[in-house]
């Protein structure tokens, strides 16, 4: 299994257990990885401590269990929805892209690959900004805005699709 974790803060965002869509127009030449999410029901679990005995006097009838619907990828990787303005996203993506380019240069990546990344990220950022309100934005549960973000949009049937900026992640095989 391959785990994708943020290049800059190490937070895990995705694994190859969730298959990526093939090269689609929304992947902007492979700059972003597109993964279809599914909705899951998440409920509050009863917590039972080791050695604890239920009181004989306490009778639980029809315990109210609260569930909420979440996107599997968001829930499993503990991502949090954040509010961004268009200006905030533009500032974020420009700064984050520059940090990726710097990391690529330091790693000795070929200039052609760096140029391809710059071209792809410019096209992606332009398209995302044009359709800014169609996306939701997710960061780590620590709200680290210096790290990677996941973007989410919805298909015609309401199914969630998450997008991950591939060069913002290191891939670790476990």
Explain this structure.
- The chain has 174 residues and is α+β, with helices and mostly antiparallel strands.
- The protein has 3 helices and 10 strands.
- The strands form 3 sheets. It has a 5-stranded antiparallel sheet with strand order 3-9-8-7-6. It has a 3-stranded antiparallel sheet with strand order 2-1-10, with no helix packed on it. A two-stranded antiparallel sheet has the order 4-5.
- A hairpin with a 5-residue loop joins strand 8 and strand 9.
- The longest helix is centred in the middle third of the chain and has 21 residues, at 86-106.
- The chain has helices spanning 72-76, 86-106, 111-130, and strands at 2-6, 12-15, 32-36, 39-43, 67-71, 79-82, 136-140, 150-154, 160-165, 169-173.
Helix content: 25-40%
What is the distance, rounded to the nearest whole angstrom, between the alpha carbons of the first and last residues?
6 Å
Number of strands: 10
Q: Rg, please?
A: 20 Å
Could you give a short account of the major beta sheet? 5 strands, antiparallel
Low-confidence segments, given as residue ranges, are: 46-50
Mean pLDDT equals 88
Note the beta-strand portion: 25-35%
């Amino acid at each position: 299994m391959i785990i994708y974790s943020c290049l800059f803060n190490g937070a895990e965002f995705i694994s190859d257990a969730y298959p990526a869509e093939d090269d689609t127009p929304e992947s902007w030449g492979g700059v972003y990885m597109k993964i279809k999410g599914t909705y899951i029901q998440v409920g509050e679990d009863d917590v039972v401590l080791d050695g604890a005995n239920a009181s004989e006097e306490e009778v639980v009838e029809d315990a109210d269990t609260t569930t909420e619907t979440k996107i599997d990828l968001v829930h499993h990787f503990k991502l949090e929805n954040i509010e961004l303005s268009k200006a905030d996203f533009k500032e974020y993506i420009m700064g984050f892209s520059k940090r990726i380019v710097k990391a690529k240069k330091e790693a000795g990546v070929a200039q052609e690959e760096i140029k391809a990344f710059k071209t792809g990220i410019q096209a992606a950022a332009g398209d995302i900004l044009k359709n800014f309100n169609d996306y939701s934005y997710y960061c780590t549960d620590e709200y680290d805005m210096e790290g990677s973000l996941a973007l989410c949009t919805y298909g015609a049937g309401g199914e969630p699709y998450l997008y991950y900026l591939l060069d913002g992640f290191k891939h670790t095989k476990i």
